[in-house]
Hints:
Distance between the termini: 28 Å
Amino acid sequence: MGKGIAISVGLAAGIALGFAGAFGGFNAFMIVLVMAVIGAVAGAAVAVLDGRGTFGDYVSGPSSGRSDR
Length: 69
């Protein structure tokens, strides 16, 4: 996932969580949060099954190109 796409998805998720919290209360906020997490995990799983990477590509942070040793 490109950096611009990741920023856009994060912004959209934040806006959805903000609206849910502001207009629906805490329960709506938690429901939207859980659904967003489930969607992210499902999206990573589909990408792995399609052969577009491994789970490590989606879980680990950006690589600095140097070893931690």
